[in-house]
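Regression test case RT-17, inverse folding.

Input:
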């Protein structure tokens, strides 16, 4: 009897091993075929974005669309800004739309992956993760008839610190936003190493503020020696009277090339017909006299975006940041 049980147990172990091996091999095949996408997704058309499930029983067609904006700043500030657009989205889709106040990037991506978040704007630095692990389908960005305006990563310091150059950052406390932020983490890590051969926690100390506005007010109040931020957040904070004009207190130590902005889109499981209606709502919404226009005066519409093409620079920066991690043994 013991021999029989031993044989059965060994068989179960072998079967489990073969299943696990098969799963890993399948995952490897998926990665080779579908690029960076999580193996649970499929990308047969090669656009680097998850396809709508072939099984219609997996589609999402909710009575209420859950809508969120990226948590770069206080979500409560922007809930009112999007009221008009949400009403327009309701009109175009025939669905109710409910605001979801996300407080961090991880929560936003997980909600999208779980199917609890249907329509959202993801900050540029999180778009790659949202697409690859959350099943996010980006199709629009804010812009003008000439294209998207974009933003720059800036490293700022309070004038009182005397910091004027990258070399002055050595030994100083530099605030990053979070590990999922582009302008607040991936870009400065990669660029400071690639252009200046400067490494985090070796040449300068790193702190995490959680949000761009925390980093900016932290530098303003001398809580940090310097910070890596998105310049558009600084512009909006100045316009809103949350910090004084930059020339009064701030030194721009470094500014990057232009990056694409927040991407807007849907969960890949949204019913195709509903996806089309949501996309149409973005691309036909009239910004005239809206709070969107007041908040982002440099833009006047939503325009189509090509994830594979327009976010290539950010994917390259992410690879550079990974190189830094390898050098630091992270």
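Golden output:
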């Amino acid at each position: 009897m013991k021999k029989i049980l031993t044989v059965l147990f060994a068989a179960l172990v072998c079967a489990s091993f073969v299943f696990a091996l098969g799963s890993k091999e399948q995952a490897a095949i998926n990665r080779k075929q579908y690029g960076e996408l999580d193996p649970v997704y499929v990308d047969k058309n090669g656009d680097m974005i998850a396809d709508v499930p072939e099984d219609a029983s997996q589609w999402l067609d909710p009575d209420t669309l859950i809508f969120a904006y990226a948590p770069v700043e206080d979500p409560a500030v922007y809930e009112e800004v999007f009221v008009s657009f949400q009403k327009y989205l309701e009109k175009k889709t025939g669905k109710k739309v409910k605001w979801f106040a996300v407080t961090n990037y991880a929560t936003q991506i997980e909600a999208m992956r779980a199917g609890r978040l249907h329509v959202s704007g993801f900050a540029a630095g999180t778009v790659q993760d949202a697409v690859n692990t959350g099943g996010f389908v980006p199709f629009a960005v804010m812009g003008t008839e000439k294209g998207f305006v974009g933003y720059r990563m800036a490293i700022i310091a309070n004038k009182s610190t005397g910091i004027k150059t990258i070399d002055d950052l050595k030994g100083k406390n530099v605030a990053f936003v979070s590990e999922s932020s582009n302008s607040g983490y991936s870009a400065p890590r990669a660029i400071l190493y690639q252009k200046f051969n400067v490494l985090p926690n070796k040449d300068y100390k790193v702190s995490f503020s959680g949000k761009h506005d925390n980093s900016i007010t932290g530098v303003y109040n001398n809580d940090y020696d310097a910070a890596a931020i998105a310049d558009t957040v600084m512009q909006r904070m100045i316009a809103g009277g949350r910090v004084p004009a930059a020339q009064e207190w701030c030194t721009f130590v470094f500014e990057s090339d232009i990056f694409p902005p927040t991407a807007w889109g849907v969960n890949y499981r949204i019913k195709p017909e509903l996806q089309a209606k949501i996309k149409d709502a973005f691309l036909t919404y009239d910004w005239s006299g809206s709070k969107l226009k007041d908040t982002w005066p440099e833009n006047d519409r939503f325009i189509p975006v090509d994830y594979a093409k327009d976010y290539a620079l950010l994917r390259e920066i992410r690879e550079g940041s990974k190189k830094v991690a390898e050098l630091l043994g992270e």
